[in-house]
Fold:
Amino acid sequence: MSINFPDNPDIGTPYSFQGVIWEWNGYGWYIVGSEADLLGLSGAGFFFPADLTTAFGADRSFGKYGTGEIISAQGKTAVTVIQEAMIASLPPTVSLSSPTTIAFNQTAIGNTLNYSHTINALGAVVAGATLEFKRTNGTTWATLTSSTAASGSFYHTLTDTNFNTFGFNYRYTIKDSNNISAQTGITISPASYVAPSVSITQQSSTISSPEIVTKREKGNVTSNISAVITRNSANVQITGWEFEFSRNGGSYETTGITSPVSGSAATVNTGTGSHSPGNTANSVAYRLRVRDQYQDSIASSVTSSPATTINFVPFIFYGPTGTYPSTSAHVRSSPSKVFQDTSTFTLSTGVTYQNFVVAMPSTYTITSVIQGAFDITAAYTDNLQVIAVADYAGNTSSYNVYTATSATPYNPSVDQVVTRA
Structure:
């Protein structure tokens, strides 16, 4: 004779058949007593008439129950209550990871997803599994796989739109036969856009001491400029560039040195272009405006940091001379020169000439000339004339021209320390 037990019962479920009480312990049905036991008789078949509330102090427990908790005991035997106390409804352990990285503007997507789970509740088995996907701007999850294998991998492919920065959300959900679920998720985000980097080179066709590329005589304003553009987002091609300049710290303007770019080279060399901000400029700064596919898509461009500012500074001319200078050319032929922002410099008399000159823009004056232990300032300041002196470009400005004379040439040469204000 067969017994038709209930399907999928909960642990502790009793079943009566012909006066015999059976109970499901999670593994199978077993006899716990007769129906008479259910009426209150003591013995192996005793069933608790009500749930139990624990009360044994905070430092004690009964299996999975702490003090003050309610034990679901009504209608269950002591054996069942003890068994249930020893078995917690532990949720599954789930894991989801990916080694995949996505570059900016990568449209061919192939995301590898590694998943695994462990069922932790005693006697339970996996009852369902889903690996799902959506974009970070989406609301609907799409199922990728429902495999209930303990571990596995899924390769998710799709074709993305250009310049899409929304992340790829994935979640992995496991449910066990006790109807307990666990879930975990990851997001794989495309890398951010990185603008091209630029290295600018500046040269001058003519430089003489004490000039350097970024500090030259007033009027020596023509610069040869070039740059190398490096692409930093591999899937974004450079499409064009243009040099811009700022004169005397003003707003940036176009130089007219520009070019489109085709192809997918990782670096672009602009070649060398010549530019002048105007021969009266006091300073100039250059930068490069760059376009690429992404910037074109948003009708914009990016600009590099300016290269080192080039300053154009008048000279102070000085040194021994055969005759006192009376012309711009004579002043400019003096053997030594320093920039006008040099406050102290040394004039060496040499052993040939007995005349000496110091010529500086008329906004400056000599405050002292010291020769060894002697102050010979008056020897210069008593002999002052004003001459229009040309700069490198031929633009003239007023210069204070100081001269001094010794009875005979010095021998040996001596140094005269000149200070201006």
Q: What stands out?
A: The mean pLDDT is 93. The longest strand covers residues 108-118. The helical segments are 35-38, 78-86, 293-297, 328-332, 377-381.
